[in-house]
Amino acid sequence: MLSIQDDAGNRLPPGEPGEVCARSGNFMREYWNKPEATTDAFRGGWYHTGDAGFLDDDGYLFLVDRVKDMIVTGGENVYSTEVEHAIADHPAVLQVAVIGIPANSGRSRARDRRPARRMTATADEIIAHARQSIAGYKAPKGVEFRAEPLPLSGAMKVLKKDLRAPYWEGRERNVN
Q1: What is the average pLDDT across 60-85?
Q2: pLDDT(4) > 60
Q3: From residue 173, how far is each of 30, 75, 165, 169 by CA, in Å?
Q4: Same structural domain for residues 56 and 74?
Q5: What domain count does the chain have?
Q6: Domain containing 18: what range?
Q7: What is the pLDDT of residue 118?
C-alpha cells in the first residue's frame, strides 16, 4: 500500500506531491546499528522512502525528486530535478546539479553546471534559458561554473551532499 504524506504525516490527495510512504509485510526490520534512522524511517506505521512524488487519480505513482534534494524558497517547494531539466538542454551545459544553499532570508538555490567544451554561456543566459520552461520562482538565483566534473557515486549519481557541504558547514539543514 502506498500513500503520499506531508511533513506532519498527513495523507495527501491525488496530484499533490509529498513523501512517498509504503506499508507492507515484507520490509527490512531495521538499519544496521542505526536505531534513530530506523525509528525515523518507520514513523507512523509507514516506511518513509525519502522519495518525493504524487499519485494520480488512477493510483499511478510519479516520482519528482528526493525529499532531501527539495528546495524551499519563498515558502514554495522547488524540486531540484525540474530545475535541472530546464537547464540541461542548454547547448553549453555538459552536467548540471541543483542544490539548496542557505541565505539570509531562508533557503536559496545555487546551481552547479559544467560547460561543454568550446561553448560558453553566462549565468544570466542560463537563468533566462531555465525561465523559458519553468516558473520564475523556480529559476536559478545563481549559477556556479565548474571546470571539473561533478562528483559521482559508484552508481553514477551526482553526490549532492558533497556539493552542499561547503555551503552548509556549521549550519543546520532541516530535511527528512
Answers
A1: 89
A2: yes
A3: 25, 16, 10, 10
A4: no
A5: 2
A6: 2-66
A7: 57
Q: Could you tell me the pLDDT band of residue 73, with boundaries at 50, 70 and 90? A: confident
Query: Among 51-60, 68-77, 115-124, 165-174, which range has the highest average pLDDT?
Result: 51-60
| Grid coordinates given for 150 | 561533478
What is the full DSSP assignment across the chain?
-EEEE-TTSPBPPTT--EEEEE--S-S-S--TT-HHHHHHHTGGGSEEEEEEEEE-TT--EEEEEEGGG-EEETTEEE-HHHHHHHHHTSTTEEEEEEEEEEETTEEEEEEEEEEPTT----HHHHHHHHHTTS-GGGS-S--EE-SSPPPB-TTS-B-HHHHHHHHHTTS-----
176, part of any domain: no
